[in-house]
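Here is the promised in-class demo. Please do not try to memorize the tokens; focus on the logic of going from shape to residues.
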């Protein structure tokens, strides 16, 4: 079975694998050769795989994993490595901080949009005396 991890800018990993583990919202799961077709949204996590007895890792910033004979992962950002402790501590912390910052930015943008809509609606509301728009 083959594994391919891609970001919008590059192919990060392409290799043959014996087995792999990943994580989605429901938790960690494993994939072995012959796995049924499968599609899931990945959590910010570390994907691991074994090739010829050697285990390798790649931190992913969410994304989509599909299994259809081979395993394909499309993610916004991926950092491969062979040291799980470094990936888990430094890279995942940065991915989570970036995701939190994006949520805050989206919330602020939504608040600005809602405020603009409220102002437009209040200016377009009918005058109580004449029934005409102001």
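The designed amino acids, position by position:
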């Amino acid at each position: 079975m083959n594994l391919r991890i891609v970001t919008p800018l590059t192919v990060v990993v392409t290799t043959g694998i014996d087995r792999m583990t990943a994580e989605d919202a429901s938790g960690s799961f494993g994939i072995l050769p012959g796995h049924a077709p499968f599609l899931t949204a990945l959590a910010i996590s570390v994907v691991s795989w074994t090739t010829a007895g050697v285990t390798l890792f790649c931190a992913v910033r969410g994304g989509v994993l599909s299994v259809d004979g081979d395993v394909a992962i499309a993610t916004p950002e991926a950092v491969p490595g062979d040291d799980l402790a470094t990936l888990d501590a430094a890279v995942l912390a940065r991915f989570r901080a970036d995701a939190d910052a994006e949520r805050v930015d989206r919330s602020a943008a939504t608040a600005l949009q809602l405020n603009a809509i409220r102002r437009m609606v209040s200016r377009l509301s009918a005058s109580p005396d004449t029934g005409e728009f102001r």
